Amino acid sequence: MSESIPPPPPPEETPPPPPAEEAAAPKRCGKAFSSLVLGLFGCLLGGAALAGFLLMDKAPADSVTINGNLDQMQNVVVEDAKQRGLKMFFASFGQWFGFAGAALGLTGLIAGITHLYHAHIKLVIPKRGLAAVGSFFSLIATLSIGLALWHGYQTHVGLPTENANEAFNRVDQLAGIMKKGEDIANGDGSGGLDEKTRGLAENLLGSTLDPITQLMTEDYLNRRAPNVELYTALGGSYSIENARNTRVLVMVFSSASPACKRAVAPLNALRAEVARGELLILAVSNEKPAPVEAFMKSTGAKFPVGNASFMPEPYSAALSKPAYFVIDRQGFMESIKTGVQSLDQLRRLARKKP
User: Fold this and answer.
1) Is the confidence at residue 141, as pLDDT, over 80?
2) What is the tally of structural domains in the chain?
3) Residue whose C-alpha is closest to residue 264's, from 248, 277, 281
4) Distance CA 8, CA 169 (A)
5) What does each C-alpha distance from 332 to 225, 286, 304, 312 come to in angstroms?
6) Range of the domain at 84
7) Cα distance between residue 47 and residue 226, in whole Å
8) 349 within 8 A of 247, measured Cβ to Cβ
9) How deeply is 279 buried, as exposed, middle or buried, from its count of CB atoms within 10 A (0-12, 13-18, 19+)?
10) Is a pLDDT exceeding 70 seen at residue 54?
């Protein structure tokens, strides 16, 4: 009997290939909205910097011309300081608004471009219109970096340089006026001044080219006169305190001043008219004894002339010489004058105040 042949085994089933991975679904993205918000806020801050740029006077501030009395000059200087302060205010805040606006704009621009790129490769749900608008505003805000740099330069370089130049301009004006005023007080003609310029100097420094007329008189008139003691070349000494019940006329002088030398003759004439017990005339300087003695001899002074080892205010504050100080019988400061006084003017000073 023949053996039966077993049937062949069934063919092995090939497993089906695994299903293809489903593509990842696009995600939500807030960068488009962030770009718009950052761009708008950046434009707002940049607009503030732009407003400061437009409102700020970019021309150098006008230099102050010193041509009035102290009250007028105070108003002029205060107004000038206000204008310069406003320029510094706009520049200082403009730099920070500009930098902040540019930083927000740059951040918003990066966010908008990033969203557009991710939308292009289908990683996020596209909001191309919103991202484009946000990127546009952010780009504009980024441009405020230029305003920030301009304001920063003005704050730290431009305006300080302008203010320093103005300070030196005022110092130069004061130095020139003081020098010319001193020339006039010393008898050197008009000190090179024409009538207009001389008038400006007199307005600034007082009617006699000396600030003491306007400032010191307010502090010392009708108050007890500070004592000053002088020592003459002849060995005598005089002081205001020792002049009891006598009116005193003190002339503060400079031995090298031609004006002071001319002032001696009217004082000699006054000395001849008024009794010693009625008026004591003293000429005092804070110079060394030698030039004071030479001054006395060259001028032929008929009244005590000497030097003081210490001269308090207001005598030491007399910038223009000669300066005259009249003290009444009670020791109170009655009047202060500067510049050469005529005999008639000295007579009025010598008379008792009504």
Assistant:
1) yes
2) 2
3) 281
4) 119
5) 5, 22, 21, 15
6) 31-174
7) 63
8) no
9) buried
10) yes
Nearest to 151 by CA among 71, 94, 66: 94
* Structural domain includes residue 20: no
Q: Is residue 296 part of a domain?
A: yes
Contact 91, 52 (CB under 8 A): yes
Question: Is the bond preceding 322 in cis, omega lying within 30 degrees of 0?
Answer: yes
Quick one: pLDDT band at residue 17, thresholds 50, 70, 90?
Answer: low
In a domain, 83, yes or no: yes
Q: What is the DSSP letter of 27?
A: B
CATH number of the structural domain spanning residue 220: 3.40.30.10
Residues 6+ apart with CB under 8 A from 255: 285, 287, 291, 292, 294, 295
Dist CA 270 CA 268 (whole Å): 5
Of 66-70, 104-108, 259-263, minimum mean pLDDT range: 66-70
The dihedral over CA atoms of 294, 299, 305, 309, expressed in degrees to the nearest 10, equals: -40
Last residue within a domain, chosen from 174, 201, 223: 174
Q: Rounded CA gap, 40 and 136, in Å? A: 10
Helix (H/G/I), strand (E/B), else coil: 99: helix
Residue 122 banded pLDDT, cuts 50, 70, 90: confident
Q: Could you give the CA distance from residue 46 to residue 53 in angstroms, rounded to a whole number?
A: 10
Name the residue type at position 257.
Answer: S
Here the tokens at position 102 are 């540019």
Is 0.85 surpassed by the pTM of this model? no
Where on the phi/psi map is residue 348: left (φ > 0), alpha (ψ -120 to 50), or beta?
A: alpha
